[in-house]
Structure formats: structure tokens, C-alpha cells
Design a protein that fits this description.
The complex is a heterodimer of chains A (65) and B (257).
Chain A (H helix, E strand, L loop, with lengths): L1 E4 L2 E4 L5 H7 L8 E4 L2 E3 L14 E9 L2
Chain B lengths: L1 E3 L2 E3 L3 E4 L6 H11 L3 E8 L6 H12 L2 E4 L7 H15 L3 E4 L12 H13 L3 E6 L3 H10 L5 E2 L13 H10 L6 E3 L5 H9 L4 E4 L1 H4 L4 H21 L22
Parallel strand pairs in B: 3-4, 3-10, 4-5, 6-7, 7-8, 9-10
Antiparallel strand pairs in B: 1-2
Helix pairs in contact in B: 1-2, 1-9, 3-4, 4-5, 7-9
Classes of the chains: A mainly beta (65), B alpha/beta (257).
Chain lengths: 65, 257
């Protein structure tokens, strides 16, 4: 199915958020995730089913003021 | 020692981590500043580049506390969601809460700020609200559960120093027991010194250090300015006068006319 990852359209085989992150190369990276604007804690990623067109945000530590 | 939430701090200088020429200069600047708290943010991470992982490793090695911000958030929902994501990634319930109301001045949307602060305080966050010098907003933020206030000096990145001295002094006088950090607008060390001389507890600096010709040198200069300003506050500055008053005693002066 096609979903939006950080604004980019990507085709993925995984059906849940945890699988999608692994498939897209995030591996053990320290990231926080949201689906369609709602925060999804790391512990709930496996249970978070994805559907066509979902907007997934994957955020990591960055410089800030 | 300054106490903010559970932290006992020797340094009254908080440092932002953005816009440094290189990661090594950032590291050296943090060390030169003596800062014990640095601000950080969250941005989109690419699965291929994973740029944020390297940054996070540098910050962890510094051994300082991190204060995640909600920079760039324009709505309560965005700010609250970003705070949740920051708490998970950075492992802290501290959040520098920014709800931006207007892009030209990056002025806080104080209505959204109070609402977001109320939600986050109820959820157990320890909120550092980026606010204006408005007394009523400050009162609402304290009612919402904030135990520190971060009034702006002037717009973020402007380097204009303390724009509204009257308002800032009134805020300081109205809530003498509340820790207050001047956040935003400090341009040079004398601005930071002035903030501390007025009784503000600390300053948060970013652009003034990171965009200096020599950020490491400027970080050291700010550290000295903050120390000097605090010492002056504790020593009790004299009251200004409109007219001159001779410092050398007049009594006993020879008549030589």
C-alpha cells in the first residue's frame, strides 16, 4: 500500500507501523512517531495498523533553540 | 544555586543548540558556556540518512540536561503532540512550550500557550512556557501549573536585548518567588548581564552565540556576563538619580579661590 512518510509517498509491504519503520531503514534509530497527527508511542507501534494513504511522521532529535 | 523544578543549577545560562557552524563548535561552545541545560528539538528523520541520531549522540556525550522545545508549533494540538513525542525521545518530562502566534515576530500565541500549558501540566509535564511580559498571562500560566516562566526579551533571533524594561521589571516584581528565564532576543553579553542585574534568574541564548564570529569565545563571554550580572543583583545596585552628586566629599575642601 502507499502511505506518506514525512510527506513523501512510499510503497510499503508492512501492515503495521513497527514493520513499516523496519522496512524503511529506521532499525534501532531513536525516533518518535505519529500517524495522521496522533502520537503513537513506541510500545504501541506494533499494534498500530496502517491503511492506504495514512500520514506517518517520524521525528528524531535535532538542533533547537 | 538556582532551582528549576527538580534541578539545582550552578549555571544561570541555558544554551540553544541550533545554527552552529559545526558539531564540534557546538560541543566546545556548550563547554565554554558552563551551561547545564541545552535546548533541543524534533524534526523529520530520513530512514537513509538518520542525521538526528548523530546529533543525539553528541548531545548525550555532553552530560547536560536537555530541554526539548515545541518550536514552530502554531496550534495547541501541534504543541501538545510534539511535547508527547519529545518526552518519549528525550526521556524527560521537561518541555519548553512554544505556541507561535505570528510569523514576523514569532510572538507567542498566549491564549494557545495557556491552554497547552494546562493540558501538559495535568499530564505531568514540567512546562517552561515561552511567553511575553504580560502579567495576566503569567498569572494564568502559574495557575495552569507552570513553576517557571520564560518571558521574551525581544523577538527570537533579533538580538535587540530587553525591549520592554518597564514590563519586565513589573513582571519580576509581581512574582518574586517564581524562577524566570529571559528567553529570546538577547544579542550581546551586556543584555544578559542586564537581565540578571534586574533579578531575572537566568537567560536562554542561542543565536547570539551560534552566529557570533567565534561562537566558543562568545559562549565564554556570556558565561562571564551572567555571573557578573547575578553578583551585581545580589550586591544590590545603587538607585539612579537625575542630577549629579559628588562622589568626593565636599566637607573639608580647601578654599583656593
Amino acid at each position: 500500500m502507499r502511505i506518506l512518510i514525512n510527506g513523501d509517498s512510499r510503497e510499503i509491504g508492512a501492515a503495521d507501523l513497527s514493520g513499516a519503520l523496519a522496512e524503511l531503514g529506521y532499525g534501532s534509530a531513536v525516533v518518535a512517531t505519529a500517524v495522521n497527527g496522533e502520537f503513537v508511542p513506541a510500545a504501541q507501534r506494533q499494534a498500530a495498523r496502517l491503511t492506504e494513504g495514512d500520514r506517518v511522521e517520524v521525528l528524531a532529535p535535532m538542533q533547537g533553540g | 544555586m538556582l532551582r528549576i523544578y527538580d534541578a539545582q543549577l550552578r549555571s544561570r545560562l541555558l544554551l540553544g543548540t541550533a545554527r552552529y557552524p559545526s558539531p564540534s563548535i557546538l560541543t566546545e561552545a556548550v563547554r565554554a558556556s558552563g551551561s547545564q541545560i541545552v535546548t533541543v528539538s524534533l524534526r523529520r528523520e530520513s530512514g537513509g540518512e538518520r542525521a538526528g541520531q548523530g546529533f543525539w549522540s553528541i548531545i548525550r556525550d555532553l552530560g547536560v540536561r536537555v530541554l526539548p522545545n515545541t518550536a514552530g508549533c502554531h496550534s495547541v494540538k501541534e504543541a501538545v503532540t510534539t511535547a508527547h513525542m519529545g518526552r518519549e525521545v528525550f526521556g524527560t518530562s521537561w518541555v519548553k512550550l512554544e505556541v507561535i502566534g505570528e510569523d514576523e515576530t514569532l510572538q507567542p500565541d498566549v491564549f494557545g500557550l495557556v491552554e497547552a500549558a494546562r493540558i501538559l501540566c495535568q499530564e505531568g509535564f514540567e512546562v517552561f512556557p515561552y511567553t511575553t511580559e504580560d502579567l495576566i498571562v503569567a498569572e494564568r500560566l502559574l495557575e495552569a501549573g507552570c513553576r517557571v516562566l520564560m518571558p521574551w526579551g525581544s523577538p527570537i533571533g533579533s538580538g535587540r536585548g530587553l525591549n520592554n524594561l518597564f514590563g519586565l521589571k513589573a513582571l519580576r516584581a509581581r512574582f518574586p518567588e517564581v524562577p524566570m528565564v529571559i528567553d529570546a532576543g538577547i544579542g550581546v553579553p551586556s543584555h544578559a548581564s542586564q537581565a540578571l542585574e534586574l533579578g531575572f534568574d537566568a537567560v536562554l541564548i542561542n543565536t547570539a552565540v551560534s552566529r557570533a564570529r567565534d561562537p566558543v569565545g562568545m559562549a565564554g563571554a556570556f558565561a562571564q556576563a551572567v555571573t557578573a550580572g547575578r553578583s551585581a543583583y545580589e550586591a544590590g545596585p545603587m538607585e539612579p538619580r537625575d542630577l549629579a552628586e559628588p562622589s568626593t566629599p565636599v566637607i573639608g575642601k580647601a578654599f583656593l579661590g
